[in-house]
Specification:
heterodimer; A: 70% helix; 2% strand; disordered C terminus; B: alpha+beta; 19 strands; 17% strand
Chain lengths: 381, 632
């Protein structure tokens, strides 16, 4: 494994761009190309999932282009700018989340959207995919990576407040991947093994308590449905059954783009957003699904490799945080579509229809490239 | 200072740990992805067949296309029972989880009253399959359709479908001939073939619609369609068209039917006209009647109850099931019986002195219809069989009845179809009653009294006949003793063969001369006129004076209520339903009979005066048409 990673990282594709420019626009060629491939694939399958609705498609195309532009902008911003902006961005995000609490738009039973006049409608919780890694990196940089139990406490506060806010929206999906991302960062920055072991055990012990006293009956039903969707085929089991049916019926090579009957006949709800993979799985089959998984894996591995080679502790922490949150997002969405996790609204990054997710994902990778690869060279600035 | 921290590398001791941890995370992710990949493999490769089938099941629905019911025509090709397309609001049964909710939703769209609700619940109860479509409301008006078009998106589970249903353009005119279809009910579900009748909502419940149900029904078709998640049809994939039911042509003559209907007027009663050559029923009217179209849309309980409990019984088919004492209309049969049994001949005379007849040892005095309490002119003098027929003398037949063997007589009379259902295709026609000593023992547990023979020979007492049987008797006389079975349907259908073919049965014991003489006597009933008081045919004054064709027939006036011994019949003392029935049968033209008719006017009064004109109107209308056709 590590050999593969080394070979992969050691190649010099990004050196095509020469000296000075490369210093300013220090894109990582692999990551950029992989992201572009993913966006292209995403737009293609989305076009089908949108029932070839050219207007919705151009909206999404515009968002992707804006996302790419912001990706470039994010790369160009200096790493220390991110450093001293981290608390500001973090506080700003929290302010927006509180604003959601008061002014948010309700859609499908939860308050997630901000719709300020003059601004496009967006989901502030998505911003956390950038601001959380930044604030964690900032905190560890200040604390000089002492990694005490006290740090866990403070990180808990810093991360817990916004997660609680989105948990209350409720947006369990995002809350879940942010939790997982934070734990992942704590793990990679070298907190002791046994702390995680103890944490894991206490969660296990608490599970029955949570099941009985914290979860609402509809939560429980959703989770139970997962194991036996046929018990409630028309209500909570519907999405799982139809999603599995769509993917399974795709077979090895799929029914062909635009030919998925499950989506065309509306059997898959949210076929262009959270369940977009069910649509493309049906239309393009096993080949496409495995290729897509591989593509996500490559993006993760490459981004993680870049983070690992960051010069600074701040860069490493932020980069790996962004990577882990990204990959958690992918895993949760795919597992949900495959009927392995309960249905929690979470888009598939860079493929699902929607602006907030696509743009923040790309900006996040821009930030990652900036904080991990930018050489703070006086001559150049 | 912040700048320095941003570029500060990780503390030295941490670097190796961090590198290791990053690799561990990489492995964890890789293994997770491998598991996800395996899950894809499981769903898409291993269980492909299962999910592929499931997606086909989702996508494809096979709908049953109900066949159109066969049409019914009269003998001239007039469409008398049609099909029409109506719009109905329907719902798939599998979508109905909360009936009240569904009804509340419907109410927000269209008017849906309690009766509609009741009908819907019944249909729901009677549906057998989960993918059945249940009609919420039939026959949507244009306004309702418009309202639905605007608001239906709120309830995508509601479907508007066009249905082909029965239409009876002649409304109540033909209901007792054609019958009607009604909605399939629980009893039908037990008896009907579930596959063949899978989507059938109406079956014939009375008349031709019932007897020829199998012929009219046709064969279901199938349609495989692609549907979306809301059950909306996207595209048709395969169609096996249904086979329409066979159409049926009746002997019925629509114009004649209308004439008979109008001739009867608002009185209760029945008219049956037969073609003596074929036995085909040319007209069959029973009044009052009802509009069968109301049963299609769904009849509310109140209307149905009033129909079924009304004293004048509009649901009751008097023509085939109404039973009346034949009265004097029976006398020609009795006369022929007397000759066949050699009790009398055409020379036999009887003297009627005072309109009374006494039987030894019987205290009851039997009277002629001419008898009056004052004794004033209540006698008919010398009577032979011919006179006894056209004057309708009771006294002559009393004399014969006094010597009669009841069972031999009944056996002879049964050759005319009394006590039997002789029709080819009306299984529910009432056989009536032709009493015998055995019959009396069995039903009344009494032996036959001699005096009862005297009631018997003038068509009173136990004997009961239907209007259809009266017409049958007319037909037998028209054919001079040769039988054809009365039948409604002219076209041939293998599925329902016309009864046993004893069409050419002949009455035994009556010679051709006897028939000729008897028919002459029956002609006199109508045509013997200008002979002075009490020598004219009983019907002459009422119908015979200006009749343009030769007809033969016999009137009858049947008592409903026994008049006390020695009392005169006084109609004013009787209530509406206790008055006498007016009966008449006849055929014309005498030398080449084209039509034989039986008429009963319930509680109408005199046979000649009340039933006679109805009979004449029907025969006249038919012969005029026939003459026009011949001339053309």
């Amino acid at each position: 494994m590590s050999e593969i990673v080394r070979w992969f990282g050691a190649s010099r594709i990004h050196h095509i761009i020469s000296g000075r420019t490369r210093q300013r626009l220090h894109f990582d060629g692999y990551l950029t190309i992989l992201i572009l491939i993913l966006c292209t694939l995403g737009l293609t399958v989305l076009y089908s999932a949108l029932d070839q609705d050219i207007r919705a498609f151009s909206t999404q195309l515009t968002r992707i282009i804006i996302g790419l532009a912001l990706f470039v902008v994010a790369v160009c911003i200096r790493k220390d700018t991110y450093y001293w902006l981290a608390p500001v961005i973090y506080s700003g995000t929290i302010a927006l989340l509180i604003a959601v609490w008061f002014y948010g738009d309700v859609s499908q039973g939860s308050k997630r959207w901000l719709d300020f006049p003059g601004l496009p409608r967006f989901q502030p919780s998505e911003l956390l995919k950038i601001s959380l890694p930044l604030i964690i990196g900032w905190y560890f940089a200040i604390r000089k990576f002492k990694n005490n139990l006290l740090d866990i406490f403070w990180i808990g506060i810093l991360v817990g407040v916004p997660i609680l806010l989105i948990f209350l929206q409720p947006d369990y999906g995002t809350a879940m991947i942010l939790c997982a991302g934070t734990i992942g960062v704590l793990f990679v920055v070298g907190f002791k093994w046994w702390w995680f072991a103890v944490g894991g055990c206490s969660v296990l012990v608490a599970t029955p308590f949570i099941w009985n006293f914290v979860l609402y009956p509809y939560h429980r039903r959703r989770i139970l449905t997962l194991f036996n969707p046929e018990s409630d085929p028309l209500d909570s089991g519907w999405n799982i059954i139809q999603s599995k049916t769509a993917i399974g019926s795709g077979g090895f090579s799929g029914k062909g783009l635009f030919n998925g009957t499950q989506s065309r006949l509306d059997f898959i709800p949210e076929g262009h957003t959270d369940f977009v993979l069910a649509v493309s799985g049906e239309e393009l089959g096993f080949i496409f699904c495995t290729c897509l998984l591989l593509l996500y894996l490559l993006i993760f591995v490459r981004a993680m490799y870049i983070s690992k080679n960051a010069e600074s502790g701040f860069g490493f922490t932020v980069g790996s945080g962004i990577c882990i949150i990204f990959i958690c997002n992918v895993v949760v969405n795919v597992a949900m579509v495959l009927g392995l996790l309960p249905i929690i609204g979470l888009p598939l990054p860079l493929i699902s229809y929607g602006g907030s997710s696509a743009i923040t994902t790309m900006v996040a990778f821009g930030v990652l490239l900036s904080v991990c690869t930018r050489k703070e060279n006086r001559e150049l600035t | 200072m912040s700048t320095t921290r941003a570029v500060e590398p990780l503390p030295g001791g941490l670097i190796s740990i961090v590198n290791r941890r990053a690799v561990v995370i990489g492995w964890i992710v890789a293994v997770t992805f491998l598991l996800l990949g395996l899950r894809f493999y499981q769903l898409q490769i291993v269980q492909f067949e299962r999910y592929y089938t499931q997606s086909l099941d989702n996508r494809l629905t096979t709908e049953v296309i109900p066949p159109a019911r066969g049409l019914i025509y009269d003998r001239k090709g007039n469409l008398i029972t049609a099909n029409k397309t109506i719009q109905s609001l329907e719902i798939r049964r599998e979508v109905v989880s909360d009936v009240d909710q569904v009804i509340n939703n419907v109410r927000t769209l269209i008017t849906f009253n309690e009766n509609d609700e009741k009908l819907f619940r019944t249909r729901l109860k009677n549906s057998r399959r989960l993918d059945d479509r249940i009609v919420l409301k039939r026959l949507l008006s244009a306004q309702e359709l418009a309202d639905l078009a605007v608001n239906r998106f709120r309830f995508p589970e509601f479907l508007i479908d066009s249905e082909v249903v029965r239409e009876y353009p002649e409304r109540e005119l033909l209901v007792h001939v054609v019958g009607s279809v009604r909605q399939v009910d629980e009893n039908d579900l037990q008896t009907l073939d579930p596959q063949k009748y899978r989507s059938t909502k109406f079956v014939g419940k009375t008349g031709i619609e019932k007897v020829y149900q199998e012929v009219l029904h046709g064969q279901i078709g199938n349609r495989t369609v692609e549907v979306d998640v809301h059950g909306r049809v996207i595209v048709e994939i395969d169609v096996e068209p249904p086979r329409r039911g066979e159409s049926i042509t009746l002997h019925l003559d629509l114009d004649l039917q209308r004439t008979a209907w109008e001739a009867l007027g608002d009185r209760r009663g029945a008219v049956v006209a037969l073609d003596p050559n074929t036995g085909g029923i040319l007209a069959m009217v029973s009044r009052p009647a009802y509009d069968p179209n109301e049963f299609i849309v769904g009849l509310d309980d109140k209307t149905f109850n009033s129909l079924s409990t009304r004293r004048d019984a509009p649901l009751f088919n008097r023509a085939t099931q109404g039973l009346y004492p034949p009265g004097s209309t029976f006398k020609p049969v009795v006369g022929l019986a007397g000759i066949a049994m050699e009790l009398i001949d055409w020379e036999t005379t009887v003297y009627d002195r005072n309109g009374e007849f006494r039987l030894e040892d019987v205290s009851h005095v039997f009277r002629d219809w001419t008898w009056s309490k004052s004794g004033n002119g209540g006698h008919q003098g010398d009577l032979d069989l011919r006179t006894a027929i056209y004057r309708s003398s009771n006294i002559f037949f009393y004399h014969m009845g006094a010597e009669l063997d009841t069972d031999t007589f009944a056996a002879f009379a049964s050759q005319f179809g009394f006590g039997l259902n002789t029709t080819a295709d009306i299984p529910d026609a009432a056989p009536g009653i032709l009493p015998t000593t055995v019959w009396k023992k069995k039903t009344q547990n009494e032996s036959w009294f001699r005096g009862e023979n005297l009631h018997f020979v003038i068509g009173q007492g136990y004997m009961l006949v239907s209007p259809l049987q009266l017409a049958t008797v007319a037909m037998i006389f028209a054919n001079r003793g040769t039988w054809v079975r009365p039948k409604l349907v002219m076209s041939e259908h293998t599925a329902v063969p016309l009864g046993e073919s004893d069409d050419n049965f002949r009455i035994e014991g009556v010679s051709d001369d006897d028939w000729t003489l008897m028919i002459q006597a029956l002609e006199d009933v109508v045509h013997q006129g200008n002979q002075g008081f009490r020598r004219n045919g009983v019907a002459w004054a009422h119908i015979g004076m200006d009749i343009p064709f030769r007809m033969a027939g016999k009137s009858g006036t049947a008592q409903v209520k026994q008049v006390p011994q020695g009392e005169e019949y006084d109609e004013t003392l009787l209530s509406e339903y206790e008055k006498k029935h007016a009966l008449f049968w006849g055929f014309a033209p005498v030398d080449d009979p084209k039509i034989a008719v039986g008429v009963v006017v319930e509680n109408g009064g005199g046979g000649s005066s009340i039933a006679g004109p109805v009979l004449r109107a029907v025969i006249e209308a038919y012969l005029e048409k026939a003459l026009v056709q011949v001339n053309e």
